[in-house]
Write a structure and sequence with these properties.
- Pfam families: RNase_T.
- One of its GO terms (biological process) is DNA metabolic process.
- The protein is α/β, with parallel strands linked by helices.
- Strand 4, helix 4 and strand 5 form a beta-alpha-beta unit.
Length: 172
Amino acid sequence: MAFIMVDVECDGPIPGDYSMISFGAVLVNDTLDETFYGQLKPISDKFIPEALAVSNITREETLTFGDPVAVMTRFRDWITSVSNDRPIFISDNNGFDWMFICWYFHHFLGENPFGHSSQNLGSMYKGLMKDTFKNFKHLRKTAHTHHPVDDARGNAEALLTMKKELGLKIKW
């Protein structure tokens, strides 16, 4: 299996009404050297300025970003190129990140290479620690900057630590 850590930045809380403006992905392996970064032009006139401000990107900048069909096609092709078998979507907040990635794949390409399921990094850590109050974020090495590749890399580093130092049984 190929675990692909994903992070999404958006201009609002739900896909369709609002837009995914950027996302990053990191193939989880020992080197974390395979990454993808996509920037997408808005699909709606609606946006929440505070949501957009989190990414330090202006609405005007987003209007110059790539066509969603082209960006999602490139992402699908990248996933295929780094996966020898079934790709596994994993993120810090899979309820949010998965919602956007899944919707964009199905809406623009008619398919999702990840299938119908995703994994939540925080839940994995809570299970490993046997404590629902534990948080994995101290395991990140890369600063959480709200640049989606940085954030995906930091989360992938945490997953590697869970495997190498905390005994998580996971194979890629």
